[in-house]
Design brief:
By secondary structure, the protein is an alpha/beta fold. The chain has helices at residues 19-31, 49-53, 82-91, 137-140, 166-178, 197-205, 221-226, 236-244, 258-266, 281-293, 295-308, 313-328, and strands spanning 4-10, 35-41, 58-61, 70-76, 92-98, 110-113, 125-128, 153-157, 185-190, 211-215, 229-232, 248-252, 271-275. It folds into two domains: 5-135 and 311-327, Rossmann fold (3-Layer(aba) Sandwich), CATH 3.40.50.11190; 139-308, Glycogen Phosphorylase B (Rossmann fold, 3-Layer(aba) Sandwich), CATH 3.40.50. The strands form two sheets. The protein has a seven-stranded parallel β-sheet with strand order 3-2-1-4-5-6-7. A six-stranded parallel β-sheet has the order 10-9-8-11-12-13, sandwiched between helices. Helix 1 (19-31) crosses helix 12. The longest helix is centred in the C-terminal third of the chain and has 16 residues, at 313-328. The protein is globular.
Length: 330
Amino acid sequence: MKKESCIFRVASHPNAGGGHINRSLALAEYLSNYLKIKFAIDNKGRNWIPYIKKFGFDSVTVKNFRKEKVAISILDGYEFSKNELQKWRKISRFLIFICDYKPNAHHHNLALFPSRKIKDGKKNKTLSGLQYALINKSIRNTKKPRIKKRVRNMLVCFGVFDSKNATGLTINILKEIAKKNHDLRTKVLMTSKSMHLNRVKDQIKNIDSNIDLVTDKENIIPLLYKADLSIGSAGNNLLERAAMGVPSITITTAKNQAHLAEYLDHHGSTINLGSINKISVKKLKTTINRLLKNHKLRSMMSRKGKALVDGLGVKRASKEILNLLNREKF
């Protein structure tokens, strides 16, 4: 039986980061069992094409996208124009949004909020809350069984671009902490797209401690699994840490990350230190030292993270998406 078509229109311009791409890929992997998947990316996002191809999906820039009729269009991004939204509505039997805010379209069939709870609207179907968190299947199947009493491995990861150089700030503090914790090893994860990569390279060269830079690591799961403590941004990065049960310190690097960081902090799975623009260096250092010494707190954070993000969000969301097609047949 021929599969119906599904287009993922994903924000992928240089300032969009990698969160939209990665959570859409997590959903696409599951839906590909039932639908023919293709990605439409920003005209300035061509560098994502090889990455998407590794997951087995073809992609095309919006400029080169042929306006063909599709069963489902799934849009993930904040800055689609009204004109573009109308075009997707016109060619799609069903229009779906993956949102962090209220969807900016007059009509959609389904809105998915994977990182916050939203009250249901009267006209449109809404799926919201961490039970719909879009987590990569490999992370879903790899959870830390226990938290070691002593922190020996740390992971620092602030996403694809890290435009505010939160990585550099964190390294400066870890340099001082490492002087009193000689068996502490830190992996710093960056990409070749990171705006401050060369600066961080020079920074690490001049540090006499166990801080290693890892660039363009396609599969970060082994590093995340090995980490006894992680420091990073919010967004999908934070959801992955929580799902795997890795205790973490969160520094938000964009306004849209604030709600999730505050929510997971409130429920005990991370310690949110707020925006990189207002970060207290002293508080970051104090928080790291506190977690290094407090095994009970780290264990509690791990348990609560795994309870909050069970990793089944992709399956739940896919079921609702496929139900749109199934109901159409009857």
